[in-house]
Structure formats: C-alpha cells, structure tokens
C-alpha cells in the first residue's frame, strides 16, 4: 500500500513511556531540534479529540496527489479533530511535519530495528533517501509509526460502493480503547489516499 514498503506489526512506548514495546520510540516532543511545535500541536489535537468523544462523520475530502496524500489526509483528520480550518499552506506544513516525524523514527532513531526486522522492503538507505522527497508517498510503515506518534488509531478504508466503505486495516488499534474515533484514510487501491471524515 504505497511507499513501496511492506508493514509489520511494531509497537512503541507512548508519550508517558507507559507501554512496554519491542521497538523503543522517541516521540517528536522528545527529539532534539524538533521544536517547531507543529507535531506537538497535532498530537495534542488528536488527544483532545479522543477525550471529547466526538461523533463519526463519513465524508470524502479529496486530497492533492502530490506525494503528500497520506500525510495530507491525516492532517485533514487532525484539523477536524481540532475544529480548525486547514488552508493549503497549513495543510502542506502539517503534512511535511508528519512526514518528518515518521522519517525521524524510521530512518534515524529506529533505523537499525526497522532494517533488522524487515519492516522496510529493500534497502533502508534507499528508502530513507526517497522518504525525504516530498513526492514519495507514505504507506504502511509511516502509518504504523504515526498511529503511535499521535496515539490515535489510523484506519485505512476502501470504497466499495457510493456510500459504503470497508476497513482494510487499523494501525494503532490499542488506542481505539480510549476513543471510538480514529483517523480515517481512504485508499484508492493503487497509490493515493484521501481523507475520510
């Protein structure tokens, strides 16, 4: 599903370090030099939404197909959770911050773990080089990581008829216990994600 990588179940410690997980995770707010505040705000927004128990809305929000589609789709969900509008400039900024957070975990902090466990198909150095390119779309590895970073489940859906959607997979399912809500992305079956809200 996008990104050229295959996924494997991997878990990380949460922000408070409460979960015991096989691969340690350094959250964005713990990263040196990661002080832009964008990811921190996105995490807070997801957590506030979970705490509010807001209802489900299923509507497709089309996302620009520029390689950031997965990250833009997640950003659109988070903007909805926070009750804020998301003009193009902020959507791109949020998407790039989400990509950077995933890159930091996959390619810097836990690179060797990802390589050893075969979570990334092929050469991880090549994958990480491509991941820095904004037109390289994210997929399973990025969703595994971002569900943990945001402490919010990410559901991947496929549209099977006009108003019917089938959930293909949920990343970060352990966070579903905290809320009935989830980040929803709509996969087109080949190489694009839209937001499903």
UniProtKB/TrEMBL annotation:
UniProt entry keywords in alphabetical sequence: Cytoplasm, Hydrolase, Protease, Thiol protease, Ubl conjugation pathway
Entries under InterPro entries matching the protein: OTU_dom, Papain-like_cys_pep_sf
Record's function text: Hydrolase that can remove conjugated ubiquitin from proteins and may therefore play an important regulatory role at the level of protein turnover by preventing degradation.
GO MF annotation terms: cysteine-type deubiquitinase activity
SUPFAM superfamilies, per database record: Cysteine proteinases
GO biological process terms, semicolon-separated: endoplasmic reticulum unfolded protein response; ERAD pathway; protein deubiquitination
Catalytic reaction equation(s): Thiol-dependent hydrolysis of ester, thioester, amide, peptide and isopeptide bonds formed by the C-terminal Gly of ubiquitin (a 76-residue protein attached to proteins as an intracellular targeting signal)
E.C. number(s) listed in UniProt: 3.4.19.12
Main enzyme class: hydrolase
Organism listed in the record: Rhodosorus marinus
Domain OTU: residue ranges: 58-197
Subcellular location: Cytoplasm
GO CC annotations, alphabetized: cytosol; nucleus
Pfam families named among the record's database cross-references: OTU
Protein name: Ubiquitin thioesterase OTU
């Amino acid at each position: 599903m996008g990104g050229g990588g295959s996924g494997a179940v991997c878990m990380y410690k949460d922000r408070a370090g409460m979960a015991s997980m096989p691969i340690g995770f350094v959250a964005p707010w713990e990263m040196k030099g990661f002080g832009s505040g964008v990811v921190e705000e996105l995490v807070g927004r997801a957590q506030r939404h979970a705490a509010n128990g807001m209802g489900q809305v299923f509507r497709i929000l089309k996302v620009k197909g520029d390689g950031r589609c997965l990250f833009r789709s997640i950003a659109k969900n988070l903007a909805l959770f926070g009750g804020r509008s998301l003009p193009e400039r902020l959507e791109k900024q949020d998407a790039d911050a989400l990509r950077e957070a995933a890159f930091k975990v996959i390619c810097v902090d836990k690179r060797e773990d990802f390589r050893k466990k075969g979570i990334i198909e092929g050469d991880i150095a090549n994958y990480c080089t491509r991941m820095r390119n904004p037109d390289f779309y994210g997929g399973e590895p990025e969703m595994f990581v971002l569900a943990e970073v945001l402490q919010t489940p990410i559901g991947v859906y496929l549209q099977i008829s006009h108003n019917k959607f089938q959930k293909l997979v949920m990343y970060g399912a352990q966070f579903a216990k905290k809320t009935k809500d989830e980040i929803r992305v709509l996969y087109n079956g080949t190489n694009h994600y839209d937001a499903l809200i």
